[in-house]
Amino acid sequence: NFCLYLGAVHACMQADSSRRPPPPRSCDTFVYVAGGGGPAATVFGKNADRPSDEAHEVMHCPAASHAPGSMLRCTHIEIPQVERTHAVVLSKPAWMWGCEIGANACGVVGGNEAVSSLLAHELGEEPRLLGMDLLRLALERGATARAAVGHLTSLLEEHGQGGACEEDGDWTYENGFLLADAGEAFVVETAGTRHWAVERVPPGAGRNISNGLSIRTGVESCSAGLKELCVAKGWWDGEGPFDWKRSVGAGGRAHAKLDVRGRERAGADHLAAAAGRVSDGSLPAGDVAGWLGWMAGVLRDEESGAARWGASGDGSSTHCPHHAPTPTPCQASASGLLTASCRRARRSRGARPGTGSGSQRAPPGGAAASCLACRLARGGGHTASHFFTAASDPLVACYKRWTFGDPAAAAGDGLAGDGGSLALWRRWRSIDLAGRSVPEAMRRALLEIEAEAVSAAERGGASEFSGSVARELELISSFAV
């Protein structure tokens, strides 16, 4: 009878695993905060891991005033709206209200990732705010990174997190966040429906997160009752330093999984390497193209797992730089730096395997989001440049620049609808599903668009996102299927 029971449990587990997507494997978010021996302006980047057939768009929402007492419909629930919201640019699943990555006109940028804790069972099936909803709400309401964190944690405590995180399923998860502005950054990690912890990242420091709890004893603040809960469950003795990850992630036990490893370790190594280059002078603090090229290289690093590609496992990427108020001349041209970064990644890549033109749905779990890297100027959001691929593979698609400083954006017309980004995402996916290879001449033309975008960031020129999307669509139109 016991063997029959184990067989039934195994069958249920197999059925459940076939119904649910595999755990996220390629959400990686990075920040290097300006000052203190770091870059002249904060640099931020994220690759997002979503189901591979989930369409993504880049969308601009202008600042708005709202009537007192009005309600806001998020992905699953309604909550009270505030009287004033900031302008935002978002990279998001097309079906969802919230976003994976975004920035506001005040100079705050953020990204969201799935995490897991010992309180995950609290989520259940009740619809609440998604982590992506919380990120968008924080950006729409917070004028600084610290203020955005305050809004996020207050909304989490009031409304809770939970609900389906995929369009046609019931997959749900807890969330981690990285939010930054020109002067500081914060890691926010959650457990269960309403608990959270925050770690501050000071000027001159780098930080990364990779789909796991990462805050240890550097807890700046946490939810009310969290420490008492951990004591009651035997996860913390209440006397030594409170270790968030060891408590809610491992039940107070010490084991190897508490160590930094895998993609998180690779990301930390990237940040350490950048710090070394700053120290030896090979990456000057004010080198705009150098820092953008470094972040683009990090987001295109296949070997570490930060970038994943293919219809069943794309690495999606957006990258958003905010140039320094007074950029210094680059040691190398923007084109040279970015071209070298792209080609180094591609030489080791080899031919991409196709999935067959008859495929209707790729296996779940591939990264499908556009991803974002940002360079946040100390002058605020309107001097910031944001770069998005608006495609699921950063090794092929180019980064295209968006700025809030564009007069059209200030008037609310800087990005009509999705600016063509949804069509571009779908075009690249059709190429991917057909297993088509991009010719070298086309790759060079795409890199020229990217190099022009970086050059515009150095000069402080106007945004050209929609025009760049249109150029890329025209370039790859002959490869659509």
TrEMBL record:
Pfam families linked: Peptidase_C69 (PF03577)
UniProt name for this protein: Dipeptidase
GO biological process, alphabetically ordered: proteolysis
Family note: Belongs to the peptidase C69 family. Secernin subfamily.
Ranges for region Disordered: 306-365
Organism domain of life: Eukaryota
GO molecular function: cysteine-type exopeptidase activity; dipeptidase activity
InterPro entries: Peptidase_C69
Source species: Emiliania huxleyi (Coccolithophore)
